[in-house]
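W.,

You were right to be curious about this one. When I first looked at the sequence I had no strong expectations either way, so I just let the prediction run and decided to look at it fresh. Below is the sequence, 84 residues in total, followed by the output.
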Amino acid sequence: MKDYFETIKDKIKKNVKLESIEIVDNSQKHKNHKFFSPDRYHLHIKIKSIHLNSLSRINAQKIVMKILADDLKTKIHALEISID
């Protein structure tokens, strides 16, 4: 799991200038939900980026979502993005 989170961080770092990034795994909070799967993550990605922060919130989140598009189809069930 940690290796996978490092892979996510690397993907974002390659495509976005950022100061810091943190990934919080909230999957266990959702294990009683109807469509919960232990193979898919509920993540909160916290990004500090002057570049992304200069964009509209929607455009900044679209960039991150595009970077993680394949992961959202296969490994990420829910994604929360915070940008400072």
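Here's what jumped out at me. The radius of gyration is 13 Å. And, maybe more interesting for your project: The beta strands are 20-25, 41-48, 76-83.

Coffee later to discuss?

I.
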